[in-house]
């Protein structure tokens, strides 16, 4: 089964478009985990990240279709962090969740193949320690830098999410530039649609998804139409200000075709006053589950 088919099926099975973002930050870990970290010891921080992310996965596995580990926070810890990232990816897969690793990778074609080998494909003899169901990818090296990823997607039933319109305030500096009568993000959307065109599953979705920020609702409407064959990954909900109303247009008529990411608002829900957490933060996993249920409820369209 292709990645798109699997993700859409998981959305319909769970009745959820929520993607839980795994962006661990040392200083925001719940107290028991924060206190287990020995200052200056990357190994102990990495062990805390593994436990934190795996317990989040266990708390939400029956509620959502996927998780999105953000590679940067693991890379920050050096080799021990990279081992932790591999453990988190494997744990999520064992729990039945699809894994979108957020690495925003890319390079010239031959190097892009190496990135694809490292990050795509969850099973089989070619699996690397970081083999994921999908990876976020930058389009700014052009078409020949995306093709190696798509070829690996074909071989390993994996997916990519190409950055089309990002959620950050400065993204428009390049993405909104007008070239030959269309914006750069419109050109990227055309390329995404073209790459999918010969690779559609029975529901009309291909392996090339697109990242479109919840913080640009008008462009989200436009880009949903421009990329009918792409699953959209919509970050920026919650902590960055995106609302349920803003993200509703990303979802297709069947209630699938998109996942909406929230990282800080879910994984650090123990810091949010609306979720009751003991003073010692020992029941932080309950807050994660409550925040996920709340987001699912908000995104019932
Ligand atoms: O590719 C992404 O996931 C991404 C693209 C984008 O345009 N904006 C964006 O915030 N992200 C990621 O989505 C997550 C958002 O985290 P929160 O703002 O805490 O929900 C982070 O891991 C970002 O790196």
Automatic annotation (TrEMBL):
<keyword id="KW-0456">Lyase</keyword>
<dbReference type="InterPro" id="IPR011060">
    <property type="entry name" value="RibuloseP-bd_barrel"/>
</dbReference>
<dbReference type="InterPro" id="IPR011995">
    <property type="entry name" value="OMPdecase_type-2"/>
</dbReference>
<feature type="domain" description="Orotidine 5'-phosphate decarboxylase">
    <location>
        <begin position="17"/>
        <end position="279"/>
    </location>
</feature>
<dbReference type="InterPro" id="IPR001754">
    <property type="entry name" value="OMPdeCOase_dom"/>
</dbReference>
<comment type="similarity">
    <text>Belongs to the OMP decarboxylase family. Type 2 subfamily.</text>
</comment>
<dbReference type="GO" id="GO:0004590">
    <property type="term" value="F:orotidine-5'-phosphate decarboxylase activity"/>
</dbReference>
<dbReference type="Pfam" id="PF00215">
    <property type="entry name" value="OMPdecase"/>
</dbReference>
<feature type="active site" description="Proton donor">
    <location>
        <position position="104"/>
    </location>
</feature>
<protein>
    <recommendedName>
        <fullName>Orotidine 5'-phosphate decarboxylase</fullName>
        <ecNumber>4.1.1.23</ecNumber>
    </recommendedName>
</protein>
<dbReference type="InterPro" id="IPR013785">
    <property type="entry name" value="Aldolase_TIM"/>
</dbReference>
<comment type="pathway">
    <text>Pyrimidine metabolism; UMP biosynthesis via de novo pathway; UMP from orotate: step 2/2.</text>
</comment>
<keyword id="KW-0665">Pyrimidine biosynthesis</keyword>
<keyword id="KW-0210">Decarboxylase</keyword>
<dbReference type="InterPro" id="IPR018089">
    <property type="entry name" value="OMPdecase_AS"/>
</dbReference>
